[in-house]
Design brief:
Mev_decarb; binds ligand DP6; Mvd1_C; Ribosomal_Su5_D2-typ_SF; alpha+beta; four-stranded antiparallel sheet
Amino acid sequence: MTHAVTARAHTNIALIKYWGKRDAKLILPYTSSVSLTLADLYTDTTVEFDAALAADTFSLNGEVRPAGKISAFLDLVRAQSGTTAHAHVRSLNHVPTAAGLASSASAFAALAMAASSAAGLALSPTDLSRLARRGSGSASRSIFGGLAIWHRGSDDATSFAEPLPATTLPLKMIVVLVDQGRKAISSRQMMTATIATSPYFPAWVEHNEAAAEKMVRALAANDFAQVGALTEASSMQMHAAIMASEPPFTYFEPETLVAWQKVQALRAGGVPAYATMDAGPNVKILTLAPYVDAVVAALAEPFAGRLLTTGPGPAARILKEASD
Ligand code: DP6
C-alpha cells in the first residue's frame, strides 16, 4: 500500500534579508530575517513513498528532473521517520505569469510538509520549519502565513521561523518583472563568495541583526514608514555587501534601477512605497492597499504587463491525502 500526500506552500519575500550561512550543512544563518508570505505565488507538491521504487523520482510542472537535491532532502525525512523507501515527488509551481519567480522557499516548505506527513511523521510547525530550513534557508519562513521571523538561533534546535503577530497594516506587494531568465550566480554560491571576500560582510551581519529586532518593533507599532525604511535598507545593504565581493558582482540590471528610482519618486510625492530586491533583478514594492493604483500607474511605463500585485498569503497546509 502507498500513501500520497499533497501539500501547498506559498513563497515569501524577506523584508529583513537572510544572506550568509554560518553552518552550510545545517543552514544556520548569520542573522535573523523577517518575511511576508505571499498569496499568489505557491508550490503544490505530492510525495508518495513506495517500497518497490529503486530510486527517488522528481517532476516539476510535469517534466522529469534530476532528483539529486530532492533525494538529499528526503534522506533527512527517512532518517527521522525510519522509512527506507524511495519516493515519487511531483511539484507544480503556481505563478500567474511565466515570471521567473519560482522559489526554493515555497518548494522546500511544500516538500517538507508533504514528505514528513507521507512518511508518517507528525511534526510541529517549529519542527517543520527546522526541516524546511535544511532544504533552503528561506523555506523555514514559508511554513507560516503572513509575517514571519526566522530566528538565527544558536544550533539546529533553536534556528526556526515563527509567525509574528498580525499587523493592522493593509500590506500589499507589487512584483516588477524586470527579467525572467536564470540567475547568473545562485544565491547559495554568492552567499559563500560574499562571506569569503566582501569586506562589508561583518558590517552587514551587525546591522542586519539589529534591523530584525527593529522590524519586529515597527510591525508591532504598525509604523509603516519605519517598516518600509528598514525593508529598503536591509535589501540595499545586502546588495552593497554583494557588490563589494571580489570579484565584484551585482544582480541589478538597468531596469532594476529604473524601477527603484520610480519608487523613490513616488515616495517623494507622498506615496508610501518601498523597494526590495533579492538574488535577481526583479523589484518587489511594499506598499499599502490604498496606494496600489498609484504605484501601478507610476510603474506602467515601462513595466505595463510586467506587474503582479499580491498580498499576505496563508500558511503551508496539506491539500490531499490518498492511500491505495
Ligand atoms: C536574497 O533561501 O534561496 O532571497 O539557503 O542557500 O537555499 P539557500 O538560500 P535561499 O536564499 C534567499 C536569499 C534572499 C533573501 C531572503 O529570502 O531572506
